[in-house]
Write a structure and sequence with these properties.
It is built from 2 helices and 6 strands; from the N terminus they run αββαββββ. The chain is an alpha+beta fold. The longest helix has 18 residues, at 3-20.
Amino acid sequence: MAKDDALKWAKDSTAHMAELTDVELLPDTAKVHFEACVGANDEVAEDGRYSLFYYVYSPAPATDHTRIVRKLRSELSKRGYEVTSYREFRSAYASAVFRARGKKTSYSVEAETVGSGKRKPQRFSFAVRTPCMLPPGVKQQQF
């Protein structure tokens, strides 16, 4: 998949999670991280392989965080995602966490409380991670 297509998927996926949970996103907080893929023996290919980590914040108050992760757990489980981590909001030190992986794609989605609420505002983050991707038309390097 081309990087532009992966980024579009990431934006669409986080927007879909926000829509499912009826919260808004703060587009100016979005961060895009394309990373090199590291192999089982710490090798790094030079064929253009990459993985993508993308996240964007929501101003949803901490009082909504449990509702958000409950809704994501319910809805995404029906859509082919396996929940890998889950916790409801209890406090700034035991905040809400939802992580799931696509059973067919290995794409990961994450949603969690970020910020301590003391020095940084407590917000909610929606994020996605791709597995290692090879751009179209590129010959895969072998190790």
